[in-house]
Write a structure and sequence with these properties.
The complex is a heterodimer. By secondary structure, chain A is mostly helical. Chain A has 14 helices and no strands. Helix content of chain B is 67%, strand content 5%. Classes of the chains: A mainly alpha, B mainly alpha.
Amino acid sequence: MTDPIAAAARATPDPLARRIRGLSDRAIAWLFVAPTIFLLLAINIFPLIWTVRLSFTNYRANRPNEEVEWVGLRNYIRILTDDGIWANMQTTAHFLFWTLFFQVLIGFTLAWLINRKFKGNDLLTTLIVLPMMLSPAVVGNFWTFLYQPQIGLVNYVVELVTGTPASSFSMLGPGGLAKWSIILVDTWMWTPFVMLICLAGLRSIPDYIYEAAEIDRASKWRQFWTITIPMVLPFLMLAVLFRGIENFKMFDMVVLLTGGGPGNETLLASIDLKREAFEKWRTGYSSAYAIILFVTVFGLASIYVKALNKVKER
Amino acid sequence: MTAYSVTEPTGRSKLVAGLLVTLYAVITLLPLLWIISTGFKSGPDSISYPPKVVFEPSLEGYVNLFTTRTRVAAEEFQNLPPPETWYDAIVRESGMVIAGPSRFGERFLNSVIIGFGSTFLSIFLGTLAAYAFSRFKVPLKDDLLFFILSTRMMPPIAVAIPIYLMYRELGLSDTHLGMILLYTAVNISLAVWLLKGFIDEIPREYEEAALIDGYTRFQAFRKVVLPQAATGIASTAIFCLIFAWNEYAFAVLLTSGTAQTAPPFIPTIIGVGGQDWPAVAAGATIFLLPVMIFTILLRKHLLRGITFGAVRK
């Protein structure tokens, strides 16, 4: 061996350093990546495979000594033909659609206003962002206080602004308001997320494009629709992707606000899944349920990412 | 006179925009201010109607948060020696005596241990992996990176079922170690993606120069790359910490006694006839304040953190 580096390595007194220098870059790469991959395999992938396996059985975690039977696709068939579960899916879709709608609308408007670069916009942006970083469970729990029937702050403000008597409605009780109440809290929390991403999009548009449009005498309205919107769209779609995945999985905030009630009015799929898995202990059945949810979100996200890439290429 | 610019908004449009955004900020901060102020209200003040904006501040909520109290018989109450401390005195006013400390302190400490433990581990493993992904040719690199990201798409409850069973077998249920490992597994995807972005931005030339100077790869990593990536590592760490701090679903399903963190505990603080709102608000304030401060410190890297490094401003 006449490799000068190896020769230098042999001359190094520290035996550890010598051994390490002996490692190829490829070996170092694997050494560095392996612990992460191992951890993810142990705590993410292995459990996922286990869930798939359980989903074909009638196993119940609260009766570990009972004999486990293979039931084939029965759990899947039961879930897909269950009207209750389709109702939960509709509840989830309602929540998903309206939270995204309001967050995009308000978030984009705010970003567009903040982009006027008025004095103090940095400070206001930081303040507006605060709710999004807080614990959804703790905040969700506190909103039940703001939503108290008759005496809650929300009822008071509604009476003050619209004149509707505060005692005539209940934000989380029966009467159909609960599914809008959870949308309100989610919008309050996550609008800043959409806003921040839109702001990044708006700031990425170079000034010279507007200057060129101005020379061509394009109206402000036309500039907005032909420059601003298309340039921000990839950012906006990314924000929708993140919020969509998160809200499909939504559990903590809503479970503390309503627990799925009144009745089943706000029973999102993941809250229902928690009941099946950890209250009724139908482990096999809920594993199938979990797989169906995972495949749904994964499938929808993949289709969406394809669309997003098309928009980006344009 | 400044030069006329077509892209600079007019003074009036700035004013209108500023007012509208300020209005939104006031509305959106109102619930947070309400949490903080409710913590300093007395029990009756907290549920009075119309809601009280001006009230006599009281530390009752904070005292209730940290203590458990019992009611004693009337004549016994009369014969008690005078209260020794200010918090004794506050509890006496409501006709009760302090029975002992509450569990809030323990739960908060659990949040700190699990939060910092999992953050340290995620950053340690994440930095190594991110460096490898950034600098070396790792086979199937893109697939591995996507695999790391996709683990975030699973609903927590879906993963919780087998983890519950696995932890039961391994004796990790309701232990600090179990929660630290779990949160590390969830956070590591964020850590790898963010840190890879930060390390990508450090010019390779620095390390190459160090290697030529006779540094080993490890030395170059430790003495050249790590100091350069310090800001990125710090902000990634804060993101990991905030996630572990806020997490509820796994905590409520996998812990009950010894390792329970604060988020599942705070909603269970009850007083006479329902939740003790001043105490809940006091707990929420203590729990939320660190995150608010971190958010303000992080504001430059916020966007990057919440989008897994996809948007960098």
